[in-house]
Batch of 2 targets.
Target 1
Amino acid sequence: MQIKLNKRQQHVMWATVRRYVTTAKPVGSEALLEEFNLNVSSATVRNAMGRLEKAGLLYQPHTSAGRVPSDLGYRIYVDHLLKPSMMGSQLEQLFASQLQGDRRSLEALLRGAAQLLSQLSGYVALITLPERSEATLRHLQLVPIEGHRVLMIVVMDTYESESVVIDLPVLGDDSSDSAIDPEILEQELQILSNFLNHRLRGQALSDIGTVDWGELGQELERHANILSAALVELERSKRPEASHILFSGLSEVLRRHPEFSEREQLQTLVQLLEEEQDLLLPMLTAGDAVDPSAMTPTINIDLPQRRVAVRIGSENSLQPIQDCALVFTTYQCGDAAQGSVGLLGPTRMMYEDAIAAVEATANHLSEVIASALMTTASV
């Protein structure tokens, strides 16, 4: 599809979107002249808006009303007319001040990030949990604490680390704690750690049943039951939950944006987020993103490629969000995508802010995961 927009038409298109996003009211030429430095007459602006309407980028909701961007108009804006946003740097500062100390679990980190993302953006933040069923063991270490008590530390390839305190059977002939030689205990634990790393590295914790404990020899085989039970318990605690998407900010979106005032639309959106996440989850996969080149008019503006995908209105295949915009990307562990970060709001969205915020969140999560892996791998 080829549509030629000159500089003036591009400026009017940009200004119309910005005005409508701010006010939620149809935009007239006089409003644009008052707010933006267009340096042209009202008639010139009306003529430009008329051409944009003929191209399908603007429309009039009522005969006497001003104009409103169409889905295609927003697509033009997103792909060609965006300007830099400071939202990303603001969010990075919030993450640095409020999330740096959060190392309780990956889920706690993701929940905190979703809350900050929704608070700053004013949209519904969506962050998917990693596919835990695919998480594999990266490193296991048994560390002596006191007496027969041992700390088992398990690090998964998704960065998550879990630990559990277990009581091993007495390693020596004497059953008293004081008779246990710390050096011998440390050596025994290192042998057990090496054995489990060798057998389980790169495998899911559920594969614990495939370990041949007989290879340990009689001296250490007695520990098999307690170690196996501890690993099974960890595996159970890490099984996927019913909810795969963490979301935050729904009440704020309903308060800020009149588009969600209709009860029926609100009910379908709430149902999608709370009860039908299996339908929404595939939409947050970067590989399933819309190809803008298949629908975007060419206006000959070269901009750097973004890794953030944007679905606008009818580009969303799910009926409950066909009046919404979905902005999303992935957070990584090395080169592998672990999950997605997104914002869901009305098509009347401040896209430059949403894109910057989503990208900043994904970058932060990727950096934290990489840092945690480097730290835990050295344990």
Note: The first strand starts at residue 58 and ends at 59.
Target 2
Amino acid sequence: MQGFESGLVDIVREFLRSDHLLRRAFGRYRSGDLSWEEVQQIAGDDDSSALFRLKERCHALFRAGELDRNTARMGLFDLAVGSLFHEAMKLRENYYQLEVYAPKVAQARQAAGADAGPLFEEFDRILVTSRARLAEAVEESEALLYQTRQQFRSLVSVHKDSGLVARFLLENASRAEEVLGEPLDAFFAWMHGAPATGYALAARSYLSSGFFDEAGRALAQALARDPQRKEWKRAAAYAAGMSSYLRGRYSDALRQLDEWVEAQPEPDEAQLARLAHSAISHLGQLGEGEDGVSLAAEAERLAERLSPLAAAS
């Protein structure tokens, strides 16, 4: 499942980037400032283009076989992305005709003889057609992007329990809110029933990955929205304790982890207890001196309290 979640985060990342590039391109097309390089960033035949990467990642993840009862929604997002890619390739082809091919035709016209007149009339017809098709491709790509954005919301909601996705959305909140069309709090409320739940979900994922500072910040956001949740206060004490340990603030670490133990961790927090026990056990090897002895003794006492929690399966 971890591999699937990582793949899903890749898709979220690529969609946020593709959405940003496409919307910027639509605006620059209308203002007359669009460049060929920008079009190449969006659509192309290799991994250098955002929509190509998105399409390939969707195909790889969502066409790998039967996943769960929500496979149909994932397949619909995959289909929407594929359609968006092919429409963007039409945009790319017609833009190439006007931006790259047309100037070459103009240069050739100056050097050509009178007998080439019929050929240039055909070139002119091609360019007129390309201009009309480009406008159609932009309009269709915009409509498809809007619909794909709606499917993106459904895709994320199908995997609303993914801590990795919640983390990525928090870390890229500004870009995510552009795509979602609303603040993250509103999106989390729609998806989880309460915005604080999204922050707590990200925090749990950070904790399990050893990102204690990030977990602490996410938990602070969750508690700011729902201050009464005891399990989040307990998790915040753990995150603070492990962060203090990694910074060498051992007295703070012992005090904060003791708070966590006092708050009576649940059995499903055994892995956290094992990590804390391993860390605290090393504090018994601190240097000599009255303070060192006192700290080592306190560490030993806390390690004993952690032992039964760490031994839980």
Note: Residues 109 and 261 are 83 Å apart (CA to CA).
